[in-house]
Specification:
- By secondary structure, the chain is mainly alpha-helical.
- 57% of the residues lie in helices and 6% in strands.
- The strands form three sheets. Strands 1-2 form a two-stranded antiparallel sheet.
- The radius of gyration is 26 Å and the shape is elongated.
Length: 446
C-alpha cells in the first residue's frame, strides 16, 4: 500500500483566490456544488487528483471548492495530533442514512431476525459471531491459522498450539468479556484489562501486556517494506491522552450531542491513533468499539463481525486512517468507511441467518415427527445428517449453545439413549458420533 498524496494547503489556495478576486471564488464554489461523486461519497484529494475537474477549473481549484463545501457544520472532538490540532468531522452523506440504519437494526427491536429474538436459538448465532470476530480480527494482525482449525480449537476447548491460535483464543475470550463489562464506565484499568486478555502469551515481552509503551520502545505504523506511514504521540503523553479518551467514551465531553454510534467509531480511531501499547493496538481498538456499542445500547452488535468485512479489503481500512491524518484531521473519511462496514456486517448477518434458516427448514422436514428432541438436539442432529463423520463432546455442545456443562451432558446422553449417537471414551473424555443409518433411526423415532 502506498501513502496517499497530501492535499494542497487551504491557506495557500485561499490566498491565490483572493488575488484573482471574488468572482473566481464564486465560480469555483458553484462548480464544486454542481459536481457529485457517484463511486465514492467523500473522496480524498488522492482520488480527486485522478478525476476530470469541472470545466474551467484546475484540480487545486476544484479541491478548494470541495473543501469550502465541507466546512460548514464541522464538529470538533477533544482528540489532538502532535501539533495540538483538533480532529473533526461533518455529517456528510451518507452518514445520516447509516446512523438511521444502525438505530433501526442494531439498537431497536424493529425488523429483528426472529432467530435472534428467540431465546431458544439466539445463543447459536451469538457464539458463531464471537468465533468469526475472534478469527478475522486476529487474521487482520497476520494470524495464519485456518478457520476450520480455529473453530475446532474454540469449540473443543483445546489449548492453543502456536501464537496464531493463541491470538484467536485471546480474542474470543475478550469478546466474551466485553459483554460482561459493558456496564462499566471506561477507565485506564478497563483498557489495560482488555489489552491483557488480547495479548496474553503473544508478546515478545510478556511484561508489555496491560501497560503503556515506554519512551524507549519505538513504535510506528508502516508496511512490510519498512516505509513509515505514521508515528504515534510520545509515550509521555499517553496518561493524559487516555484520560481524555475515557471522558469522551463516558459521555462527559463534549457537552453537545454526539450520536452514540459515531462516538463508538471515533473511539476505535482514537485508540488506534494514540497506539498506547507495544502490540495489540488494532485488536484493542476494535474491542473498544464493541464495548462502546454495547454500552450505548446497540445490543445486536454482539451478533455482527466488523473484522470479517474489514478483512475483505484491509488496505481500505488502513487508507481510512491515512486519509483522515493527511487531510486536516478530517475524521469524516473514517466515519464514512466504518459506518459502511457496519452496514455490510448487518447485511452479512441477515444473509447468514437466511441460509441457516433454509437449512433448518430442510432438516425440520426430516425431524418434524421427532417431538421428543429439544431445539439443541435437533441442531446437533441436523449437523450430523450433513457430517456423518463428525465428533461431538460435552464441551463442544456446551460451547456451541452457550449452556452449562450439565445441560450439554444430558442432551448428548439422551441422544445416545435414543440411538442417534454412539459413544466411546478416551482417557477421561467421552466422544460421540452419529449412529449408522441415522436417517432411518430418525424415521422410527417418535
Amino acid at each position: 500500500m502506498r501513502m496517499p498524496k497530501t492535499p494542497p494547503r487551504m491557506d495557500e489556495l485561499m490566498s491565490k483566490m483572493f488575488e484573482e478576486g471574488p468572482d473566481r471564488l464564486t465560480k469555483i464554489i458553484q462548480a464544486a456544488q454542481n459536481r457529485t461523486f457517484k463511486t465514492e461519497p467523500y473522496p480524498h484529494w488522492d482520488k480527486i487528483l485522478y478525476l476530470t475537474p469541472p470545466e474551467g477549473l484546475s484540480h487545486k481549484e476544484w479541491w478548494l471548492g470541495v473543501k469550502i463545501q465541507r466546512n460548514p457544520g464541522r464538529k470538533k472532538i477533544p482528540l489532538r495530533d502532535a501539533q495540538r490540532r483538533y480532529f473533526s468531522y461533518v455529517l456528510a452523506d451518507p452518514i445520516p442514512e447509516r446512523l438511521h440504519e444502525i438505530d433501526m437494526y442494531i439498537g431497536g427491536g424493529i425488523q429483528m431476525p426472529s432467530q435472534i429474538t428467540n431465546p431458544e436459538t439466539k445463543d447459536q448465532y451469538y457464539v458463531e459471531s464471537l468465533i468469526e470476530e475472534a478469527i478475522t480480527s486476529s487474521q487482520l494482525e497476520h494470524a495464519t491459522t485456518t478457520r476450520r482449525v480455529a473453530r475446532e480449537m474454540i469449540r473443543t476447548g483445546r489449548k492453543p498450539s502456536d501464537r496464531s491460535e493463541q491470538m484467536i483464543f485471546n480474542n474470543y475470550r475478550t469478546m466474551q468479556a466485553i459483554s460482561e463489562v459493558k456496564n462499566e464506565p471506561l477507565s485506564k484499568d478497563l483498557i489495560f484489562r482488555l489489552h491483557r486478555l488480547i495479548t496474553e502469551d503473544t508478546l515478545d515481552d510478556p511484561s508489555a501486556a496491560g501497560r503503556f509503551r515506554r519512551p524507549d520502545e519505538e513504535i510506528y505504523v508502516g508496511d512490510d517494506t519498512g516505509e513509515r506511514f505514521y508515528t504515534p504521540p510520545p509515550a509521555e503523553e499517553l496518561e493524559s491522552r487516555i484520560k481524555i479518551l475515557c471522558k469522551f467514551a463516558n459521555k462527559e465531553i463534549p457537552k453537545e450531542f454526539v450520536h452514540p454510534a459515531i462516538r463508538a467509531v471515533l473511539l476505535h480511531f482514537w485508540l488506534a491513533f494514540d497506539h498506547p501499547f507495544v502490540d495489540g493496538n488494532g485488536r484493542t481498538a476494535r474491542a473498544l468499539f464493541y464495548w462502546a456499542m454495547l454500552r450505548y445500547g446497540f445490543w445486536l452488535s454482539e451478533y455482527i463481525s466488523i473484522s470479517h468485512i474489514i478483512l475483505k479489503g484491509p488496505s481500505k481500512y488502513s487508507r481510512a486512517f491515512l486519509y483522515t491524518e493527511t487531510d486536516d484531521n478530517d475524521l469524516t473519511y473514517f466515519l464514512v468507511y466504518h459506518l459502511d462496514i457496519i452496514r455490510r456486517a448487518i447485511e452479512a448477518l441477515h444473509e447468514y441467518i437466511r441460509k441457516q434458516a433454509s437449512k433448518v427448514a430442510q432438516v425440520e422436514k426430516r425431524l418434524r415427527n421427532v417431538a421428543i428432541l429439544n431445539y439443541r438436539q435437533r441442531a446437533l442432529i441436523s449437523h450430523a445428517l450433513k457430517h456423518p463423520s463428525a465428533t461431538y463432546t460435552f464441551r463442544t455442545h456446551q460451547t456451541s449453545h452457550n449452556i452449562v456443562y450439565q445441560t450439554a451432558r444430558l442432551d448428548l446422553l439422551e441422544l445416545e439413549k435414543f440411538g442417534l449417537l454412539t459413544s466411546h471414551k478416551i482417557k477421561k473424555r467421552w466422544y460421540f458420533q452419529p449412529a449408522k443409518e441415522l436417517e432411518t433411526k430418525l424415521t422410527n423415532l417418535r
